[in-house]
Amino acid sequence: MTDAVKIIATGSFLPEKTLTNDQIAEFVDTSHQWIVDRTGIHSRHLVSEGETVKDISIKAAKDVLKNAGLKASDIDAVFIATCAPNSGFPSVASHVQTELGIRGPGMDIAAACGGFIYTAFTAERWMTHQKWNKVLVVGAETLSSYINWENRGTCVLFGDGAGAVILERQSGDPKQSRGFIDFHIGGSGIDKELLYGDNENGAEMNGREVFKHAVREMQNSCDTLLSRNHYKTEDIDFVVAHQANQRIIDAIGKQMKLPEDKMISTIATHANTSAASIPLALHASNQKGLFKNGDLIVTAAFGAGFTWGGALLRW
Predict the structure, then answer these.
(1) How far apart are CA 132 and CA 252, in angstroms?
(2) Which is catalytic among the residues 67, 245, 272, 286?
(3) pTM
(4) Which of 15, 90, 107, 244 has its CB surrounded by the most CB atoms within 10 Å?
């Protein structure tokens, strides 16, 4: 019998410090309405001086363990999705393991905004192969370290934060049980110059081209997952897309002919948190009680690289 892997708990950590659009307009030639019209963002969380990806990952990990009612000894492995590690080595996963007292494999995966999908896919495959029972997956970013605060085209887009899930393996057909049903993973380095960044020069993006690529690839991931698993669009209860831009989320919903209330959106107060955006959105929705057992959820992400993909799961 094939094993199924399900999300049994969610958690998060958002830095206390926030930055509103009006505050950005004090030092950049922009306005609150200009930012909202183009992105849907109203504010974002930013780490304080000295606060790193390691720190926020640990806090999100502690939160999800508490929500799951688990101890560190219950966890078989740690996977961290991030493109902003605070050091070359050891990995952020190693720091999380040390702080929480988790023994077992730990690794980071850098796939930018596609990171959580890549990491959840990797964790799910390892769990079924290695017969691990429970795995901690965290998406964490401090993209404020990549921001050139004089570039109004990109400085308004990003925020910091960490979202976490606990995955649990159970016996049973994934298509008949709660859990991940299928993943769609893609990528290409051909257009990497359209979106790139580092903590020395900041982030650079061809917004128009990235928008087109993001809508096309995220919708394709959703369509592929549905068609090859014999579901129709009307079977979907919720879409949790990467929170890059409200216009991207709206475009995907429109092309899939889904009502607005099925398109999860947290971008207004989170901004683009890259690999953290999907787990943060999952946790925010879970906290509100939006997801019910048995709901069919599709997630989709697109990021620098380019990386893209999605997951189909039964909540």
Answers:
(1) 35
(2) 272
(3) 0.94
(4) 244
Active site residue 155: no
Per-domain residue ranges of the chain: 3-171, 179-314
Q: Which residue in the block uniquely carries the two structure tokens 């990497």?
A: 192
Asked if 141 and 84 count as a contact pair (C-beta separation under 8 A), the reply is yes
Quickly count: other Cβ atoms within 10 Å of residue 261's Cβ: 9
* Same fold yes or no, 3-171 and 179-314: yes
The single residue of 184, 242, 270, 283 carrying the catalytic annotation is 242
| Residue 101 neighbours by CB distance under 10 Å | 10
Q: 3-171 — its CATH code?
A: 3.40.47.10
Which helix (H) or strand (E) element contains residue 216? helix 207-228
Catalytic, 272? Answer: yes
For residue 188, give Cα distances in angstroms to 46, 280, 308: 30, 26, 9
* pLDDT tens over the chain, length 315 residues: 478 899 999 999 999 999 999 999 999 999 999 999 999 999 999 999 999 999 999 999 999 999 999 999 999 999 999 998 877 789 999 999 999 999 999 999 999 999 999 999 999 999 999 999 999 999 999 988 888 888 888 899 999 999 999 999 987 665 666 899 999 999 887 777 766 667 666 667 676 787 788 899 999 999 999 999 999 999 999 999 999 999 999 999 999 999 999 999 999 999 999 999 999 999 999 999 999 999 999 999 998 879 999 999 999
Of the candidates 83, 113, 155, 222, the residue annotated as catalytic is 113
Distance, C-alpha 8 to centroid of its chain: 17
Q: Could you tell me which CATH number the domain at 179-314 has?
A: 3.40.47.10
Q: Give the closest residue to 265 by CA, choosing from 24, 16, 21, 36.
A: 36
CA distance 104 to 80: 14
